[in-house]
Structure formats: structure tokens, C-alpha cells
Amino acid sequence: MPLTLWREGVRMAWRWKAAPVPRPLYGLDRLAAQSAATVLIVEGEKAADAAARLFPDFAAITWSGGSKAAGKAD
Hints:
- By secondary structure, the chain is α+β, with helices and mostly antiparallel strands.
- It has one domain.
- The protein is built from two helices and four strands, in the order E-E-H-E-H-E.
- It has helices spanning 28-33, 45-54; strands at 3-8, 11-16, 38-41, 58-61.
- The strands form two sheets. Strands 1-2 form a two-stranded antiparallel sheet. Strands 3-4 form a two-stranded parallel sheet.
- The chain is elongated and about 45 Å long.
- It starts with a strand and ends in a 13-residue tail after the last strand.
- The mean pLDDT is 93.
């Protein structure tokens, strides 16, 4: 389970729970930096980071939460 930041009234608190749906894609910073690049969609943050190193001309992105959570991405 990921550690995420949540608002509780006026306080902010860290909780061990998934981000709300729709979840932002991991690697949007790469996509913004390479807006004309071909997008490479992979499963998992580690795979996206590895793909970014192996294929620097591509914008490697993924969704959070594993293979069953692809439909929860924004």
C-alpha cells in the first residue's frame, strides 16, 4: 500500500492507502518535458524508470496500483 498525503479538516496527515480515483499517471513530468516524444506505457514505477534510462527518446509512463488498477488512472 502506498503512503499518501490526505487532508483531515485543517490538518494534513500521511496514511497508508491508495490515492483517490482518478489517479495521476506516474511519469507526467517526463511527458511534459518531452511533449513531442513517443509515449511508452509500461506496468509499474520501476519499469517506467528503467524504460526512461533505456529509451531516453521516449516518454515512459505508467499508472499506480499494479495491473488491476490501470482503469483507475486519470
